[in-house]
Design brief:
The relative contact order is 0.16. This protein has helices spanning 10-31, 37-40, 43-47, 91-102, 117-125, 149-152, and strands at 2-5, 52-58, 61-71, 74-82, 107-113, 129-135, 141-148. The model has no long low-confidence stretch (mean pLDDT 93). It is of the alpha+beta class and 154 residues long. The longest helix has 22 residues, at 10-31. It has a single domain (2-152), classed as Gcn5-related N-acetyltransferase (GNAT) (Aminopeptidase), CATH 3.40.630.30. It is 36% helix and 34% strand. It has a seven-stranded mixed β-sheet with strand order 1-2-3-4-5-7-6, sandwiched between helices. Residues 1-151 form the N-acetyltransferase domain. GO terms for molecular function: acyltransferase activity, transferring groups other than amino-acyl groups.
Length: 154
């Protein structure tokens, strides 16, 4: 079940933070750099990020989280994280589907490290198009993806 998360609630933020750290440590190992901004966040910065959070729950346990920013007709997926114990179980897909189904007429944008092959493949599988890349540090290049539902569903 997918539910809205009140990130201003400390216990909820702690739960999200725990999953975020576990997931981004895996990404850091994949890309060969632990210099990822989400690994430098605190619970307080997470609570004040201004994003809307949604969680995938099973038996009241949080398995994964997606957060978004909405700017008129564009939705930016800011983070999509799944606890490593629940990788490859459809959690990320369910979270992305939820956002897409709730926002059918909006363009979706997301970025991930180019070396994060599992994430890159996930977005490509979901019909996101690579629209650019940007070197952000010596070890990290970001890939930017977009999906315009109106154009792709015709």
């Amino acid at each position: 079940m997918i539910k809205t998360i009140d990130i201003t609630n400390f216990e909820s933020a702690q739960e999200v933070f725990s999953i975020q750290i576990a997931a981004y440590k895996i990404e850091a190992a994949i890309i060969g750099s632990y210099d990822l901004p989400p690994l430098k966040e605190t619970i307080e910065t997470l609570q004040n990020c201004g994003e809307s959070f949604f969680g995938y729950y099973s038996e009241e346990r949080l398995y994964g989280v997606i957060s978004i920013n909405i700017d008129r007709h564009v939705i930016e997926v800011c983070r999509l994280v799944v606890h490593p114990n629940f990788f490859k179980k459809g959690v990320a897909q369910a979270l992305l589907n939820f956002i897409e189904n709730e926002n059918k007429s909006k363009k979706l944008k997301v970025s991930t490290a180019t070396k994060n092959t599992p994430a890159v493949n996930f977005y490509k599988k979901n019909r996101f198009q690579l629209v650019g890349e940007k070197i952000v540090s010596e070890h990290i290049t970001l890939a930017f993806f977009e999906k315009n539902e109106k154009k792709l569903d015709r």
